[in-house]
Amino acid sequence: MAKPVISFQNVSFRYDENQPWVLKNVSFEIHKNEWVAIIGHNGSGKSTIAKLLNGLLFPQKGEIAINGKPINEETVWDIRKEVGMVFQNPDNQFVGATVQDDVAFGMENRGIPREEMEKRIDETLQAVGMGEYRLTEPHRLSGGQKQRVAIASVLAVSPEVLILDEATAMLDPRGREEIMHTVANLQQSKELALITITHDLHEVVQADRVIVMNEGEIWDEGLPREIFSKKDELQKIGLDVPFITALAAELQKNGIALQREPLY
Ligand code: ADP
């Protein structure tokens, strides 16, 4: 099998040496073209994983590597070019006066030539379904549209890894659906290792693999339907399997596949 894009090896982390470990011996690998959903209740360590992945934090034990390159103080600036992140609050992610200025911003910082920038603005806005909004002022957009522009801005600098950390948490159901649809499309068209972090189990149905975090440890890992079939155990660690999803998992177990796995 090809080399993983992301490798976490026996990673332990605590914010302070007087505080408990918030990640305990966590190991996983993620490959190109793979969509992995990381789920877990609040405080289980999901965001800490995201921050370790782009070098905002460094682990006290273990090793994290991107494309075989370990993340450390020397490599961190290069690594950040490879790892794009989209966060929870759509309003905190805008710097430009128009959508196109915003998408251009990260590229300007990297000295990408004007012509290439134009091309990438077009391509990435098309990829997130926002091609018609190039000249729109960000404050006129809905939450879901803002997050789609945030994704385009990250994609414009061609990362190898895209992480969405609770990127739908502040959106209404329609905005969430927009983002999940966008993510599913991207995964098919871009060569990315994609991580979505969420506490909402609706959002993992389409992922290739699910990592379940609990109290700083990997509690389980598998296909969405394998994870969903453990409804009662999940409930004990604070995760509610949506009724419709549990039903779909149950039907699949009995050989009845739904044509499209329901999102909402
Ligand atoms: P999640 O994303 O799953 O909600 P986090 O990774 O944010 O979990 O948090 C894991 C644990 O680390 C929690 O117990 C949280 O209180 C603690 N924590 C998070 N950020 C900090 C910080 N800056 N300083 C100290 N403890 C923190």
Q: TL;DR?
A:
The protein has 264 residues and is of the alpha/beta class. The protein has helices at 46-53, 76-82, 99-109, 114-127, 143-155, 173-189, 224-228, 231-236, 243-253, and strands at residues 6-13, 23-30, 35-39, 61-66, 69-70, 83-86, 161-165, 193-198, 209-214, 217-222.
SSE diagram, text form:
Elements: E1 6-13, E2 23-30, E3 35-39, H1 46-53, E4 61-66, E5 69-70, H2 76-82, E6 83-86, H3 99-109, H4 114-127, H5 143-155, E7 161-165, H6 173-189, E8 193-198, E9 209-214, E10 217-222, H7 224-228, H8 231-236, H9 243-253
Parallel strand pairs: 3-8, 3-9, 6-7, 7-8
Antiparallel strand pairs: 1-2, 1-4, 4-5, 9-10
Helix pairs in contact: 3-4, 3-5, 4-5, 5-6
The site of adenosine-5'-diphosphate has 10 residues, from helix 1.
